[in-house]
Design brief:
The protein is an alpha/beta fold and 378 residues long. It has helices at 8-17, 23-33, 48-52, 59-66, 74-84, 98-101, 133-148, 161-171, 193-202, 219-229, 244-254, 272-279, 288-297, 323-330, 340-347, 351-363, and strands at residues 87-90, 109-113, 122-126, 152-155, 176-179, 204-207, 233-236, 258-261, 283-284, 337-338, 367-369, 375-377. The protein contains 16 helices and twelve strands.
Length: 378
C-alpha cells in the first residue's frame, strides 16, 4: 500500500470529483476500507485489484483513484475555495446537515457557500420549470408563510417553482438553501445571477460537485436526492408526471420524509405529477396548517407564537392581502357563497388569478372551500 499525503478533507473533495465514481460506489469504498469511523484516506491506499473487488468499481474507476493526481486538480480546487469564500464540509463535521447525514446514501462531503446553515425544521418546495401563474403564486407565498414561522426553505434554484420558493423565503427574511446540480462557481440558469448573489449573501448554496462541473442528466438526480435528504418534508407545487420533482419526492419517501402535493386544475399538464403523488399516498396540501400539524407532531421548533389554530380566522392576515385578494373578499362579504367562475366574472379578474388568490386566502384562513367547490369567507 502507498501513502498519498491527502488529508481527510482533501480525500473527500477528490472522491466527490473523480470520474467514473458515483455516490453509491463511493459509499461502498468507504464502508470497505474506511474502518468503523468511515475514514476516507485509506481508499487511496489500496491497490487497483483491491479497489475492483468492491461491487460497482470497475477498471476505469480504480485507475481514477490510484492515479487521482491526473484526474483531479486538487490545488486549483483549494484555490477556488479560498477565492469564493466557500468551504468543504465532511459528513462527520458538525456543520454537515444532520438530516442528510441520516439518509441511506449521503455525499461524503458538500461544498457550501453562504452564512446560513440548513437546520430542522426544513421544508423543500419543488416543482416544474414551466409553472402556471397559479403555481408561481402558491410557491412564493407558501415559502413566505413557512419561512416566517421558522422553517428553512430548500430547493434547487432551477427556473420556475424553485426560484419562487427561494425568493419567497428571502423576501420574508427567512432561511433558505439551494442545492446545485453543478459546481458552485457556475450560475445555472444564468438569469439567476441576482438570486445567486442573494443566496450566497444571506442564505446558503450547496453542491457535491467540484468547481467547473457542468450540469448534466446525471447530476440533476444526484442534486434531487440531496434536496430531499436535507428536509423534514417536501412540497411539490406543480410537476409533470415525469418531472424531476417526482424523483425528489421518491427520494423523500424512501428516506421516510413527509411528502405533500398541491392540487391543481385537472386540465393542466403541470398538475399531473401532483395528482399522481396524491393517488400514490402523498398528503394533499390545502393550506399551511396541514404541514404545521405534521411538524408539530414531530415536535419540531416552530415560531408560531399566538398564531390561531386551524379553523380560526386570522384577521391580522388582512393586512398582507394583495389587491386581487381584497377584491375577491369584497365579493364574499356577508356570507356570500361563490365558485371561482362567478368570482372571476364579478371581480373582472382572470380565472387563473382568482384560483391563485383563493388558495392564498385559504392559507391565511380568510376563506373556506366548501364540499361543492364554492368558497365563502370565515
Amino acid at each position: 500500500m502507498k501513502h498519498i499525503g491527502l488529508n481527510e478533507r482533501q480525500a473527500g473533495m477528490v472522491l466527490n470529483g473523480l470520474p467514473h465514481l458515483g455516490p453509491v460506489s463511493v459509499q461502498r469504498l468507504v464502508e470497505r476500507f474506511g474502518g468503523s469511523e468511515g475514514n476516507l484516506v485509506p481508499v487511496f491506499e489500496q491497490s487497483s485489484a483491491d479497489l475492483q473487488a468492491v461491487r460497482g468499481v470497475g477498471p476505469e474507476a480504480a485507475a481514477a483513484i490510484t492515479g487521482w493526481e491526473q484526474h483531479f486538480p486538487l490545488e486549483r480546487e483549494e484555490q477556488m475555495l479560498e477565492k469564493l469564500g466557500a468551504r468543504f464540509i465532511l459528513a462527520r463535521d458538525p456543520e454537515y446537515p444532520r438530516l442528510l447525514r441520516e439518509t441511506g446514501n449521503p455525499p461524503v462531503g458538500l461544498y457550501a457557500l453562504g452564512p446560513r446553515e440548513v437546520r430542522s425544521p426544513a421544508v423543500a418546495i419543488v416543482g416544474t420549470r414551466r409553472p402556471t401563474l397559479y403555481g408561481r403564486t402558491v410557491a412564493r407565498r407558501l415559502a413566505e408563510d413557512l419561512a416566517r414561522i421558522g422553517c428553512c426553505i430548500v430547493s434547487g434554484m432551477a427556473r420556475g417553482i424553485d426560484a419562487e420558493a427561494h425568493e419567497g423565503a428571502l423576501d420574508a427574511g427567512g432561511s433558505t438553501g439551494a442545492v446545485f446540480g453543478c459546481g458552485l462557481d457556475i450560475v445555472y440558469p444564468p438569469e439567476h445571477l441576482e438570486l445567486y448573489r442573494r443566496l450566497s449573501g444571506s442564505g446558503v448554496l450547496f453542491s457535491e460537485f467540484p468547481f467547473g462541473r457542468r450540469a448534466d442528466r446525471q447530476s440533476f438526480p444526484q442534486r434531487n436526492r440531496v434536496v430531499a435528504g436535507l428536509c423534514d418534508a417536501i412540497v411539490v407545487v406543480e410537476s409533470d408526471a415525469r418531472g424531476g420533482s417526482m424523483i425528489t419526492a421518491r427520494f423523500a419517501g424512501e428516506n421516510g420524509r413527509m411528502v405533500f402535493a398541491v392540487p391543481g386544475r385537472v386540465d393542466q399538464p403541470a398538475s399531473r405529477g401532483c395528482h399522481q403523488l396524491i393517488r400514490d399516498g402523498a398528503t394533499l396540501l390545502t393550506g399551511v396548517d396541514d404541514l404545521v400539524q405534521e411538524l408539530r407532531y414531530m415536535q419540531l421548533d416552530l415560531k408560531l407564537g399566538d398564531r390561531p389554530e386551524a379553523g380560526e380566522r386570522d384577521d391580522r392576515s388582512l393586512g398582507s392581502c394583495s389587491a386581487e385578494e381584497r377584491r375577491i373578499l369584497e365579493h364574499l362579504d356577508n356570507g356570500e357563497v361563490r365558485n371561482p367562475d362567478e368570482l372571476a366574472r364579478e371581480s373582472g379578474l382572470p380565472l387563473y388569478a382568482v384560483s391563485a388568490s383563493l388558495v392564498m386566502l385559504e392559507l391565511k384562513r380568510l376563506v373556506v372551500k366548501r364540499a361543492d367547490g364554492a368558497y365563502q369567507s370565515r
